[in-house]
Amino acid sequence: MVTDAVVTDADLALESILDRYGRWPTHLLQMLIAAQELDGWLPPARITRLATALGLPRARVEGVAGFYSFLYLRPVGRYRVLFSDNIIERMQGSQALMAALAARLWVEPGKVSEDGLVSVDTTSCIGMGDQGPAALVNGQPLTRLTRERVEAIGDLIRCGVPVADWPEEFFRVDDGVCRRDGLLGLAMAPGAALTAALARGREGWLAELEASRLRGRGGAGFTTAVKWLACRDAPDPHKVVVCNADEGEPGTFKDRVLLASRADLVFEGMTLAAWATGAREGFLYLRGEYRYLLPHLEAVLAGRRAAGLLGADIAGQAGFDFDIEIHLGAGAYVCGEESALLESLEGKRGTPRIRPPFPVTHGYLGRPTVVNNVETLAKTCLVALQGGAAFARTGTAQSTGTKLLSISGDCPRPGVYEFPFGVTLRQVLEACGAERTQAVQVGGASGVTLAPYEFDRRIAFEDVPTAGAFMIFDDQRDMFEVARNFVHFFAHESCGFCTPCRVGTALLKGYMDKLADGHGAYRDLAEIEWLDRLLKNASHCGLGSSAPNPVIDTLVKFRPAYERRLGRADFEPAFDLDGALARARQMTGRDDAGAHLSNAPEAQP
Amino acid sequence: MSASHGRPKKGSLPPGGTAHSAKGAQTSATFLLDGQPVPFDEGQTILEAARAAGHYIPHLCWHPDFPPHGSCKLCIVKVAGRHVSSCAMPAKDGWEVESNTPEMNGERRALLQMLFVEGNHFCPSCEKSGNCQLQALAYDLEMTTPRFNHFFPDRPVDATHPDVLLDFNRCIFCELCVRASRDQDGKGVFALTNRGIHKHLVVNAESGCLGDTDFSKDDAAAHICPVGVILEKRVGFAVPIGQRKYDARPIRVVAMEEDKP
Ligand SMILES: Cc1cc2nc3c(=O)[nH]c(=O)nc-3n(C[C@H](O)[C@H](O)[C@H](O)COP(=O)(O)O)c2cc1C
Ligand code: SF4
Ligand code: SF4
Ligand code: FES
After folding, report:
1. Taking a C-beta distance cutoff of 8 angstroms, is the pair A272, A301 a contact?
2. Each residue of A215-237: pLDDT tens digit?
3. A222 in contact with B at a CB cutoff of 8 Å?
């Protein structure tokens, strides 16, 4: 343990981290992420030092660190392998691969090996559904995992080869763009959209944006011009522009592609928002899973500063000052919710705020703040270049322009597809070559499950809205397991602030597991439906209120997948006799049939 | 507060139902609570206005001395078919608010059941019995069974402080102690860590022990817990169970009397 008298190298390193972030408590999360690099985890004494240096209660710092999945308050392996656990990767065999790696390394999933070398575990979808199974090793994405690759990885870890020296091929991330339209087909010189918007003047530019009727691509579909105007008109003169690059919705990865290959469009969109609202401060909140993109994004920012497209007097416009800072997330889906994102940006736990007031009037540090999705911001460049009316010519009446879809699951050509709004599910399925499709999950875990009789419905805010995920399940898939995977996801990602979601998602998980274990009864289905309603009604934010969506939809459209699992009884006790013996089995090292009790009614004589 | 797809935009409620707005005509602004007119001032929340007019709406994380917190959701009411937290939602002229209805009370009962099964609550042996708001609300809302499967979480007791005991088994995460210690005592003794169902309280010491903090039994935070987590040592059971705050009269009556000057 470190005492006050001894100054270690790690303490000096911590001092330089503190200095790098100006010792601002708003940068606490960023400092914790950097401080964790020193030992791979955050020892108690380091938390104490950080708190002392920032003049914060230690408990607060511990509370922030404890919120994020990628910050560790206990030692973890020198190699941390986290398998992406979305249903898509499970269908690609991720569970067997994880078991194989764990067995090869003599480590139990979820634990640290006794020599402290390695830990193997799961994590929520890392945004590589089109090139999975995927995992993170010390934060770096590994794609296209196979049995052979996992064995090779096991050997690299056992031999202590630094991750930086692993074969580059293991880390290859493809954009996988399969269909281009207005946005992905655009080749724009940096600054061109800005020049066009500046030429129109502030009012002229906002008028174009209004004419485009562009709506947010992050899920809620709020009209972008209305948001920007509300921010501009808020009394506080210190406006802020935030790009939401949290992309945590399982099955979504289109923002990853924009950030990797169209970052100039995203940053230029932020600058266009700054021009419209008068903001001088900008943030891009990058999910921890996409940290590997950070050096690239920083380089693009540096290039834009050098070109006079960020900083003071942007593009020669006197008094137009704006710059962008990138903040990292650390494994928390809820931080995609805009008010939780702002809390996280302020260096706090990612708990959604009470609304009203809304971010456009009281956002980052109480300042009027525009929060927009990556794709929304990129699209504003199209509006600036073509004009609002031209933009609005594509799409449908209430959904102008195009939509990027992240297609994954049972189809031969997964990847990112850009379609005009109004495209039917059937057309999308044809484009990616899907056959014998049983269901499509549109909009991610929080979206809708659509059955074949709905495949003529359209992707549009007025019909099937989506943040971009499009997960395909063929007729061999078990839709109950799909819903159960999503329920586990929500229980894991609930921030725990409000009672209905904190306890309700955990209870829902319990019911789904009870069914999966063969102990379900008809009564449980009624309880599930009741819980679904309570979650929808009473939750504090969109996470809790959309958590039951996959269950509600599959219960209606794929009910046999549930009923198959029900015992004959109307009621089955939730107490699991066999489960209660788990610890005894672990202590005796037994897991044979004789060490199991069955309390399933079929098994009783 | 719900929408059928994706990520509903929360809190964007329909405007007030009548033609005259609350602005400039503060005295005339009213909403209907279960059919009874309730006057309010601009900016006042539904719960505050209701209380001022003598109507009780159940609550656990709300406290008159603090800004709304909005986490327990016991105060949910229905406005124009949507659920809102009455402790946090500013009232609007002409709204029709449903609160004391079988539907809302049924949902509140389920929320109480969730709080009970999530922790370890053994009321008969708890020093707070009869003074506990969770228990009192459960009686008042006629909660007769736990309904859900118990979680039986492992939450150790902290007895390291000379004057105060912390029994985390009963915590309902209202954060009143967090807020009181931070905003009233200026100390920051408590904070929440972890998330979801694993969320729990921590105290401001590297050892994790209350005895190593500057907490005092005279702090505001020492007296604010609505349940039996923060307990003063050596004064237990001074008033026998059966003669305590909520033993004779229900919480809806006691709470409204406490409001009177
Ligand atoms: C639980 C939850 C997670 C969300 N995650 C994201 C996300 O990862 N990216 C995103 O752009 N919006 C996300 N949103 C929506 C944001 O709250 C917000 O509506 C959006 O960023 C606004 O941008 P837009 O108007 O450009 O769509 C999420 C919402 C909820 C409730
Ligand atoms: S609904 Fe869930 S994620 Fe949202 S505030 Fe409540 S606990 Fe947190
Ligand atoms: S200890 Fe008491 S006051 Fe503090 S959060 Fe828990 S229930 Fe609320
Ligand atoms: S009293 Fe309103 S949410 Fe707790």
Report:
1. no
2. 999 988 999 999 999 999 999 99
3. yes
